[in-house]
């Protein structure tokens, strides 16, 4: 029996702890197996996340292509309308019979062109805003899913 100075309790030493190589080997093996299993799980998760991200990017690029075509078509339509309005205005100016009629036609054409430009800008802005939302949606969805998974973990 050994006594610890300053204490009234007695500690009995039945046997000293001994080092057993077979148990140490088992612990190292168990730790290694656990590490390998965790690495496999992490790799599987990484692979799954990479595939999800790739699909999101493919979807984003497809949506961007579609929206680019729509923006191009709207821009071409606006340019065509402006060109037609310009030619009609030139025809009207050539047919003007007096300087006052010429200036009236010029003022009316300027007002019409300003109004048309405002409408065209609003239309293009709406298309561009929707395109931005459509293009960012797949990536945003993936990011939100990853964030939810991270919070759950």
From TrEMBL:
Entries under InterPro entries matching the protein: Phasin, Phasin_subfam-2
Query: Where does the Phasin domain start and stop, copy by copy?
Result: 51-141
The coiled-coil segments of this chain are: none
Give the region (Disordered) as residue ranges.
Answer: 1-47
Show the NCBIfam families listed in the entry: phasin_2
For this entry, the protein name equals Phasin
Q: Which organism is it from?
A: Mesorhizobium shonense
